[in-house]
């Protein structure tokens, strides 16, 4: 029973990371119908920034700077999408373009580290024991930071005028445009927010475990999976889905089989996509075409 | 104008057999020029592997428009299977092991397809990615079978006709070349068959194609299976080439390479994979001396540029240049778009075997969207041979009612029946096969196919040749195509659009598109035809002709027709009975004249009716 | 479907197509290039100098270069200089095989230093049987490669059996009564765990296998802690996960010794774990370097001066030995490769060659029945404290 707390902390810390990826992915998918396949690499950059570039500064300043960097990177991606649209690229192509851009980022990171591992450092040291389990304070703090950022994002999307504007622009762009909404500006903000979420996700990930360029893919795919489980079209749902998946994942590793957890998660995802593509929420019964 | 001879050559050059023959000659010549040098033979062989993989992915990504990202997993399945089967099952000939590898990978493809055949692009991508990641973990951990992350090292050498075929030799190159030819032929014939036609149409609109009776899961599943088989063929041969099978070689980086090859060469073309494989192999050769990070930068930069701007790839570019040099004339013929309808003598034959279905009915149907009732207690019936009108103001729920009757929407309450059979919960293609055809408010033709090909889609389910036969251009499938062509031409004749038969459907006039859509529906010899605002966008003459066509369809044992319409002249012309839908409920139904004179109906239509009267007044004055 | 083109795109495609055609024809016709100037004997380095183990590959490459430069500076081998060509395998077996063939057919390489890892080696071995150009494995520990000995396949590194045995015996020497055993599910881990079991003969308090690509070992660590182990024996190449585990151990005050294989002496691992953690948690890795020999000490300084760019700038003794063994054998055959070289290699012994590995020169050597340079007792355990490697245990000296 005591180990359950340790497990929960683990799940929430990593879960918050995957949830941030899920949220970033979902926001952009809703706004542009483009899949941000470069998400993992943006996260990788976040770990590099917090762990190497900003390592001399206090962690909280580092995180704020990372958030700004993420926003800037989101803008860059948005510019790329605009250029691509103007050149007539389809959504599939733009999604792959995001992947390509991500690979570029990954290659730059690789270059500077020659493929080795690095870490964004623990935020705090120390631990406390529960029974025979040791729980690191770092994980607790990371979980809190992650969930706080997550909550902030979801609040922005669902409560603010900006967030509602994003929803409107996503669901009915023509109507939105006619109502005086500057759709393109809203889409741009969506990408900026997504960039921030994804970069911060990576920064937090780097604080939890050593990271290398190979970490980009697993980081992203668990975020994507979470988004699909919770309902890709809603950032809040996506975040919850990712948190749920993380808990299931950790439980599976601990109590069932440590080697096959990804198969379990993705098997679940696959089944879900086959029978309920809109996620676990109750939704309309219109068939997807 | 083109001379007959050059057109003849052009047709010959389009044939896959000719292309593979010419390609084969080029392939052999280049191979011989290597002079047995092991290193260059090796590079060339790897290039051919890239080609086979590009062909297999092109089938899905290019021709079927399916964003499938698991090709590397199917390739890996082929590689692992041939080794596992070869080392565990004692005395199987190598070629049998290869065939088993292909079969296993084909099943893998099928597994991928079954749940995802209806998914929208980004979901399909995620599902296939998840599949690939799951496979990777399985391979890494099922150590007793796959050797885990260290892989398998005792790979049996390729062996044909009693001779061992070593890697990096001429013999191996010819073997792989043969496999490449098989891959090309199978893929090319498949794409040119009815399967290719269905894939194209499904890509343009899954729903509209389903309502012609085509089952997306079967068609796409088959494409996935063939794609898997080809990837498995490549994988099995690759194992015999590498003589070691490790999971890292079947991972994400291979996927990037294949995607690059397909896209840079020219997606959805025959030549694309060739160009793509050549360019990617050359790229690999040039980047081996670079730091992998630099190499990745090169790949990623190229992928980025190609993704954003090079939509047609190298082939598309070449084609567009050719277009500039030798423009072809695609302008539609001038003249009236409607030619008068032919008399309704063409007998489409008995509708189907078995009991004749004489009634289509929805009873007390409720349709609810997010808490809002779009339809409440709607009942509607249609008999064979009668023409019924469905009218009502905009937003009344007319299209929703038709959607409920064709399986596009599942009612929350009520019954929908064709004859005695319930259609509730059936997929749209099943409903179509039960004898219910429909058109849409905006014609849902497949714009990239020709008019004739669009109508041929309607005959798809009466094909006698199986999918496999169709994919290899068997005599029976060629016979099917001939029959479909003739019958489609006849139908086009019947609706008066025969002169547009070979035009690209996206380029013909709107009115013609409506006719073609109708012909396509009729091809299925439906018991009931539901037309959604067929007269929208037509002028008076065209509308009158349309009315004549509708009446002729329903006459003498023909299908029952439901017409959703706003234009009362047409309704009066063809409908014996009218149902009035207002705010999701039936206001009134009965004989046309009675209903249209009813004061409640006049009130509902006051604005619209007055406009029609106004228009007629202006026309007769002006 | 046609896309409106722009002239620069046309140019780009045209240029690349022409370049490709020209390159392919140019390359196929240049297949007769000689292996170097008159009298030069060509050795190839088949290493992953880029990628996850790139630092290690580069270290080996530098050590090889250093050895070759030394030999050439003192007049070469029987008056012939040695020429060194580098082939990067990028840790991919396919590339390793292709580069091997390239070296053999294009550059007339007579022998290779490398490959490094087991999958690369597995891909190259079948080619060696056909091409008859010997390889000297520097790193891969899969015993099956040299036991039983295969022609043209030699090894100058430890085997996983020896590493595991050394670890078990050191643990006993330190007084560990409750050892825990960990290993990944790849060949390295599995073989390590099997060898450790065979050597220990008793039961470990817990055995924790983990996925070869795992990123977080907290569950396993928790179970080890729950079993109250007092040391951990570990066989894996998953440096990231182990580095994270050591970090977590340091942060949670769980500082029992971690005794592993040669992976724990690598700079990559030190980076993953962090010097601070390694100062707190005693971590030991195996090595066959004869760090106390005078030969080692005299080569260390100049190497560090020249290649000191590496974090620890230490020479790789196996690579050094490989060069000297090959050079000596080439001297015997007067530059002939193939079967003659194979025979000469099989006659190599440490007493004739300047060797930095093993216990003392006399116990090193190849023969017809032994293609492993160092004897089993040569395994050593070095403590990696984040800044230095110091000798902690030697198998033979116990």
Overview in brief:
The complex is a heterotrimer of chains A (289), B (622) and C (398). By secondary structure, chain A is an all-alpha fold. Chain A is 74% helix and 3% strand.
Please give a structural write-up.
The complex is a heterotrimer of chains A (289), B (622) and C (398). With 289 residues, chain A is an all-alpha fold. Chain A has a single domain, classed as ABC transporter involved in vitamin B12 uptake, BtuC (Orthogonal Bundle). In chain B, β9, α22 and β10 form a beta-alpha-beta unit. In chain B, 58% of the residues lie in helices and 11% in strands. Chain B folds into two domains: 236 residues, no CATH class; 263 residues, Rossmann fold (3-Layer(aba) Sandwich), CATH 3.40.50.300. Chain B has 26 helices and twelve strands. With 398 residues, chain C is of the alpha/beta class. Chain C has 13 helices and twelve strands. In chain C, the strands form two sheets. In chain C, strands 7-6-8-9-10-11-12 form a seven-stranded mixed sheet, sandwiched between helices. The longest helix of chain C is centred in the N-terminal third of the chain and has 23 residues. Chain C is elongated. Chains A and B meet through α3, α4, α9 and α11 of A and α5, α6, α12 and α14 of B.
Summary keywords:
heterotrimer; B: 622 residues; alpha/beta; 2 domains; six-stranded mixed beta sheet; four-stranded antiparallel beta sheet; 26 helices; 12 strands; 58% helix; 11% strand; C: 398 residues; Rossmann fold; seven-stranded mixed beta sheet; five-stranded parallel beta sheet
Q: What is the mean predicted local confidence, pLDDT of chain B?
A: 85
Count of runs of 4 or more consecutive helical residues of chain A: 11
Give the structural class of chain A: mainly alpha
What portion of residues of chain A is helical?
Answer: over 70%
Strand content of chain B: 5-15%
Q: What is the average per-residue confidence, as pLDDT of chain A, rounded to a whole number?
A: 82
Number of domains of chain B: 2
Which consecutive residue ranges of chain B, at least 5 long each, have pLDDT under 50? 329-354
Q: Return the CATH topology of the largest domain in chain B.
A: Rossmann fold
> What letter string, H or E per element, gives the SSE order of chain A?
HHHHEEHHHHHHH
Corresponding CATH superfamily of the largest domain in chain B: P-loop containing nucleotide triphosphate hydrolases
């Amino acid at each position: 029973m005591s180990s359950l707390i340790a497990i929960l902390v683990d799940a929430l810390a990593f879960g918050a990371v995957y949830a941030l990826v899920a949220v970033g992915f979902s926001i952009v998918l809703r706004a542009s119908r483009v899949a941000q396949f470069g998400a993992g690499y943006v996260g990788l950059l976040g770990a590099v920034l917090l762990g190497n570039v900003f390592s001399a500064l206090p962690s909280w300043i580092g995180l704020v700077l990372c958030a700004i960097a993420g926003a800037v990177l989101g803008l860059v991606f948005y510019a790329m999408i605009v250029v691509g649209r103007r050149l007539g690229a389809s959504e599939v192509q733009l999604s792959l373009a995001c992947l390509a851009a991500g690979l570029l980022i990954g290659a730059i990171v690789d270059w500077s580290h020659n493929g080795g591992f690095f870490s964004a450092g623990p935020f705090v040291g120390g631990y406390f024991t529960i029974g025979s389990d040791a729980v690191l304070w770092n994980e607790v703090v990371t979980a809190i930071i992650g969930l706080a950022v997550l909550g902030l994002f979801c609040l922005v999307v669902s409560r603010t005028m900006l967030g509602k504007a994003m929803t409107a622009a996503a669901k009915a762009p023509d109507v939105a445009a006619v109502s005086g909404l500057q759709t393109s500006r809203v889409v741009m903000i969506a990408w900026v927010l997504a960039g921030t979420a994804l970069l911060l996700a990576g920064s937090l990930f780097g604080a939890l475990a050593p990271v290398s360029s190979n970490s980009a893919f697993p980081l992203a795919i668990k975020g994507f999976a979470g988004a699909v489980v919770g309902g890709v079209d809603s950032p809040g749902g996506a975040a919850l889905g990712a948190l749920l998946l993380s808990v299931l994942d950790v439980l599976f590793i601990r109590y069932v089989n440590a080697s096959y957890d990804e198969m379990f998660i993705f098997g679940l995802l696959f089944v879900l996509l086959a029978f309920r593509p809109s996620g676990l929420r109750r939704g309309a019964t219109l068939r997807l075409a | 104008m083109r001379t007959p001879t050059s057109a003849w050559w052009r047709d010959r050059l389009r044939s896959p057999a000719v292309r593979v023959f010419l390609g084969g000659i080029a392939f052999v010549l280049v191979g011989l020029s290597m002079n047995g040098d092991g290193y260059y033979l090796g590079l060339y062989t790897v290039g051919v592997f890239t080609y086979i993989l590009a062909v297999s992915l092109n089938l899905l990504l290019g021709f079927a428009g399916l964003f499938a990202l698991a090709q590397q997993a199917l390739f890996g399945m082929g590689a692992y299977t041939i080794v596992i089967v070869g080392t565990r099952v004692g005395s199987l000939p190598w070629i049998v092991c290869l065939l088993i590898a292909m079969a296993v990978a084909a099943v893998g493809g099928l597994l991928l397809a079954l749940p995802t055949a209806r998914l929208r692009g980004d979901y399909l991508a995620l599902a296939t990615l998840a599949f690939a990641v799951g496979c990777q973990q399985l391979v890494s951990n099922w150590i007793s079978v796959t050797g885990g992350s260290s892989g398998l090292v005792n790979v049996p050498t390729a062996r044909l006709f009693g001779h061992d075929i070593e890697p990096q030799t001429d013999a191996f190159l010819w073997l792989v070349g043969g496999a490449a030819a098989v891959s090309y032929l199978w893929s090319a014939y498949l794409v040119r068959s009815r399967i290719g036609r269905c894939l194209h149409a499904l890509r343009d609109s899954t729903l509209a194609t389903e309502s012609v009776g085509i089952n997306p899961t079967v068609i796409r599943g088959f494409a996935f299976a063939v794609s898997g088989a080809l990837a498995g063929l490549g994988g099995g041969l690759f194992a015999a080439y590498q003589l070691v099978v490790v999971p890292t070689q079947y991972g994400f980086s291979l996927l990037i390479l294949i995607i690059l090859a397909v896209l840079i060469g020219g997606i959805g073309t025959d030549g694309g994979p060739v160009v793509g494989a050549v360019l990617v192999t050359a790229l690999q050769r040039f980047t081996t001396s670079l730091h992998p990070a630099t190499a990745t930068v090169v790949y990623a930069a190229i992928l980025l540029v190609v993704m954003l701007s090079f939509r047609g790839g190298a082939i598309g570019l070449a084609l567009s240049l050719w277009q500039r040099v030798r423009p072809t004339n695609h302008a539609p013929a001038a003249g009236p778009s409607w030619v008068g309808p032919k008399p309704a003598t063409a007998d489409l034959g008995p509708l189907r075997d078995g009991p004749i279905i004489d009634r289509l009915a929805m009873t007390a149907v409720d349709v609810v969207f997010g808490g809002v009732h779009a339809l409440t207690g709607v009942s509607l019936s249609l008999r064979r041979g009668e023409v019924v009108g469905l009218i009502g103001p905009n937003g009344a729920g007319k299209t929703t009612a038709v959607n409920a009757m064709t399986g596009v929407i599942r009612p929350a309450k009520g019954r929908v029946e064709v004859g005695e059979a319930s259609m509730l919960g059936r997929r749209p293609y099943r409903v179509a096969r039960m004898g219910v055809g429909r058109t849409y408010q905006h014609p849902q033709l497949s714009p990239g196919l020709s008019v004739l090909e669009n109508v041929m889609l309607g005959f798809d389910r009466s094909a006698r040749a199986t999918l496999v036969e169709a994919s290899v251009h068997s005599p029976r499938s060629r016979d099917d195509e001939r029959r479909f062509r003739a019958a489609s031409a006849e139908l086009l004749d019947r609706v008066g659009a025969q002169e547009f038969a070979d035009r690209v459907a996206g380029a013909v006039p709107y009115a013609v598109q409506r006719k073609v859509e109708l012909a396509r529906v009729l091809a299925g010899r439906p018991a009931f035809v539901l037309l959604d605002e067929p007269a929208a966008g037509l002028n008076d003459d065209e509308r009158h002709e349309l009315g004549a066509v509708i009446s002729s369809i329903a006459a003498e044992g023909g299908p029952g027709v439901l017409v959703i319409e706003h234009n009362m002249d047409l309704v009066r012309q063809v409908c014996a009975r009218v149902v009035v839908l207002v705010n999701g409920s039936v206001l009134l139904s009965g004989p046309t004249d009675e209903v249209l004179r009813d004061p409640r109906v006049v009130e509902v239509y006051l604005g619209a009716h007055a406009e029609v009267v106004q228009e007629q007044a202006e026309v007769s004055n002006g | 479907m046609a896309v409106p083109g722009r002239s620069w795109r046309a140019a780009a495609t045209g240029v690349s197509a022409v370049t490709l055609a020209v390159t392919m024809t140019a390359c196929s016709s240049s297949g007769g290039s000689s292996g170097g100037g008159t009298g030069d004997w060509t050795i190839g380095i088949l290493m992953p100098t880029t990628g996850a183990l790139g630092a290690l590959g580069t270290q080996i490459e530098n050590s090889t270069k250093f050895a070759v430069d030394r030999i050439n500076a003192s007049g070469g081998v029987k008056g012939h200089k040695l020429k060194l060509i580098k082939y990067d395998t990028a840790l991919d077996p396919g590339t390793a095989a292709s580069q091997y063939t390239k070296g053999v057919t294009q550059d007339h390489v007579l022998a290779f230093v490398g490959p490094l890892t087991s999958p690369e080696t597995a891909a190259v071995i079948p080619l060696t049987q056909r091409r008859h150009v010997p390889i000297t494995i520097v790193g891969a520990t899969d015993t099956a490669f040299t036991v039983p000995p295969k022609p043209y396949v030699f090894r100058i590194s430890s085997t996983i059996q020896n590493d595991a045995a050394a670890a078990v015996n050191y643990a006993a020497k330190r007084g560990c009564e409750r050892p825990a055993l960990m290993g990944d599910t790849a060949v390295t881990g599995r073989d390590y765990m099997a060898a450790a079991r065979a050597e220990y003969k008793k039961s470990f308090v817990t055995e924790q296998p983990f996925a070869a690509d795992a990123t977080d070992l907290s569950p396993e660590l928790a179970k080890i802690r729950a079993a109250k182990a007092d040391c951990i024996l570990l066989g894996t190449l998953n440096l990231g996960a182990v580095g994270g585990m050591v970090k977590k151990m340091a942060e949670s005050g769980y500082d029992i010794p971690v005794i592993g294989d040669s992976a724990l002496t690598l700079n990559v691992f030190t980076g993953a774990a962090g010097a601070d953690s390694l100062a707190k948690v005693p971590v030991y890795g195996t090595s066959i370097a004869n760090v106390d020999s005078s030969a080692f000490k005299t080569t260390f300084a100049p190497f560090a001066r020249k290649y000191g760019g590496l974090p620890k700038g230490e020479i790789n003794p196996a690579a050094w030995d490989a060069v000297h063994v090959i050079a000596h054998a080439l001297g015997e055959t007067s530059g002939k490769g193939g079967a003659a070289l194979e025979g000469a290699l099989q006659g190599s012994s440490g007493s004739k060659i300047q060797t930095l590995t093993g216990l003392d020169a006399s116990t090193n050597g190849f023969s017809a029945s032994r293609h492993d340079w160092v004897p089993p007792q040569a395994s050593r355990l070095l403590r990696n404290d984040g800044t230095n490697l110091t000798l902690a245990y030697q198998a033979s000296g116990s």
